[in-house]
# Entry
Amino acid sequence: MNFPFRKGSKVYIAKKENKEMRITLYMAMTLDGFIARDDDSTDFASKNEWKSFSAMLKKVKYAVIGKRTYNIMAQGKEFEKIKNCHFFVMTKEKIKEDNKSITITNKSPKDLIKELEKRGIKQVCICGGGMINSAFLETGLIDEMYLDVMPVMIGKGIPLFGKKNTKKVTLELKEVKELGKNEMQLHYRVKK
Ligand SMILES: NC(=O)c1ccc[n+]([C@@H]2O[C@H](COP(=O)([O-])OP(=O)(O)OC[C@H]3O[C@@H](n4cnc5c(N)ncnc54)[C@H](OP(=O)(O)O)[C@@H]3O)[C@@H](O)[C@H]2O)c1
# Structure
């Protein structure tokens, strides 16, 4: 590794951005770029990773997910474990949801962000899956990315970005943090 690194060290101090809303993508991924196995399992994501992800959601309080991720989280009763975060689920399907912490929306990424801005929301976390990550990347709306890199390579699965991105994206590394043994968190700013 050829940059300053120490457990929990900051290598760059975030500049205050003069923008209405900060859009943060947060994902756990394998070293070879997958966010889940073909059977949707994310067994490679560690307890420390989950802790870090939960802390981010607790801080940001608003998250956007795709319908497939929603279904998987609902099956795993994950919405019961994550407190103090409101989830916006993107889908064209009309889903009846009784949980007051979940909003089903058929808006496009841009329209959803406009709507959240209108509601006075200052930061939102894009939490996958790969299709939703791609949809947001394509709009150029993502400001920063937190990537928790797990020390495994799985060869195939659900990629971090579900579609080939057509936009050139350049990133600035802001922080590298050790999450646990052999696990790194990379924090990038998307250069605009
Ligand atoms: N490692 C991690 O941190 C992490 C985090 C989250 C998820 N995951 C994994 O990611 C996988 C799911 O990802 P995925 O890519 O298959 O699905 P996804 O992104 O979760 O959901 C895709 C669905 O969202 C809906 N959608 C609404 N607006 C969309 C838009 N603009 N573009 C694309 N889709 C839109 C579509 O459903 P409709 O047809 O209903 O509109 C689409 O089929 C699972 O295996 C899950 O375990 C991993």
